[in-house]
Every structure is written in structure tokens, then in C-alpha cells.
UniProtKB/TrEMBL annotation:
Keywords, alphabetical: Cytoplasm, Hydrolase, Metal-binding, Metalloprotease, Protease, Zinc
GO MF assignments: aminopeptidase activity; epoxide hydrolase activity; metallopeptidase activity; zinc ion binding
Domain Peptidase M1 membrane alanine aminopeptidase positions: 241-284
Family: Belongs to the peptidase M1 family.
Name of the protein in question: Leukotriene A-4 hydrolase
Positions of the Aminopeptidase N-like N-terminal domain: 19-199
CDD domains, per database record: M1_LTA4H
Amino acid sequence: MSDPCSFSEPEDCICTYIKWFVDVLFDKHILDCRAELDFEVKGNGVKNLVLDTRDITVKQVNNDAGEILKYSFGGAHKAFGTPLNIELPNAMKRDSKLHISISYQTSKTASAAQWLTPEQTAGKKHPYFFTQCQAIHARSLMPCQDTPSVKTPYQAEITVPKDLVALMSAIGTGNRVHPQNPEKVTFTFTQKVAIPSYLIALVVGALVSQDVGPRSKVWTEKEMLEMSAWEFAEVESQLSTAEQITFKYVWGRYDLLILPPSFPYGGMENPCLTFVTPTLLVGKGGGRPLTSVSNSNFHTILRPNRAGI
């Protein structure tokens, strides 16, 4: 049964891997991107690939042979965005592979994106950016099959101003100075576990970290680091207890990101990096009464097939 909230047609072509290349442009409040998507063809004689988008400007679409592919947008829907229709040069046979590269930019009004001014942060010196893709907002960040029925691993390269740090719902694999612009740095990430699109998450800010366990850090602005590290000092014992009751934690890292006060949720169970509100920070006199929010999040994501459900 197809997802009524998605234009995509995974019964014809289903996405199996995503590579995402992003330049975060704070001055324009947009992301300049390239998405490389791998598909397995499920239908026979497939001539058209349909992806979900919302307020995305496409520059060019190519296949793995480098051919420029024709594309068009369907009618816009107030809630669900706009379908992106990509014409395939040859009718695709069942069980064949398809690789598509899409160069595009997001909109200033992307529904998954939150841009904060320096005044809206704890440090008051640097801007801040974070995403919230649940429930169907990933389509405003990249053309994708934005339905929880499609789960994929992903890799990403995120380029940001040199004074800032990028984090994702994935394992960080390093960073390097951008070869064309020494004022920027590129962070790389890998998520090996297949996840639905709404669990793709990105944050960029003046972030620092402190270990709170052998597989956990807290990440936040330096002004909140000491309190955050104390508040979540018991995360390893909580995680170990959850494993004893249920299953082994498969995501590798369980880090916590304490966001600025404008984060509109108690927490979000993004893999490898749970987003939590700073209203959970009670302090040493309070006895950590609100860390159950993080507990419920890692219970939710303990198993990959239960992620976010």
C-alpha cells in the first residue's frame, strides 16, 4: 500500500543509499547541495522516477553515465509539497540498479530548517542551524522518498564556516579544511544502519563536547557544557540497563545534543545524536529528574527496525 503523504513510488524504484553534499550558507539561509541517490528497480519498464520535494530549486539531474536527465515538477500540494518527476533515458528492467545525482538549493523557508541569529544562542557570537525532519519535512532538505516505509544508510559531507561544528544523526568520520576556501571546513559522516528520511538530522553551531560515558558525549554551546555533562552523567548506566531489558544498542554512539531554548520539542530520537531541550537542565540541586526524556528516546531507537516508531 502506498503512503498517502508521499508522491514517491517505491514500488517501482526504491532508494537503497544516499550521499549528501551540503554547503551551509548562513548569509542566505539556504543549503547548496548535491544528493546522490542509488535505487533498486522493483517494477518493469520503469520510465519515470518520482521524488518528494518542498520548495527546492533544482539545478541539474544526471545519471551515472553523466547524462543530463529531463525533469519537471508536478502540482504543488499545501501539505505534501511538490513531486519531482525525472525522466529515465531507457525503460528500466526489474532488479536493475539506478544512480541519480541532483544538484539543487533549499529555500529560505524550508520547513525542516531552523536558522538562529547569534542573539538567539547562549554564546551570542555565532549563528546556529538545526533541522527537524519529522514527520514529512526531509523533502524540504533533499529530493527523496519521504516515507517511513523506505529506509536507507547514508553518507554526508557538510561544509560550514571554520569557527563552527557540524553534527549529524550519524557517526562523524573526520573533518578537513575546504580545499577551495580556507574559511570553511568540511565534516564527514556515515550512517551504516538503514533509517527513514525523517531521522536524517543536521546541526551547525559553536558546539563543544564532553564525554559522559564510553560511547556517549554531550554536545552544546560552551556556556551550557558543565551543567549538561552533570545532568547526563548517568547515561551509560541507563543505556546498559535498557540493553539488558531489550536488545543490544546497534548505533555505535549515543550522544546528546542540548539545543538552544527555541528547540520546540522535549527531545527527538535522531540516531547517534538525540536532540534534547535545555529545559531538562535542572542542575546539581535537582537530582536529574528530567533525564527520563533521553531514556525514552534511546528506548525508541535501540533497534534499527523500530527507529522513531
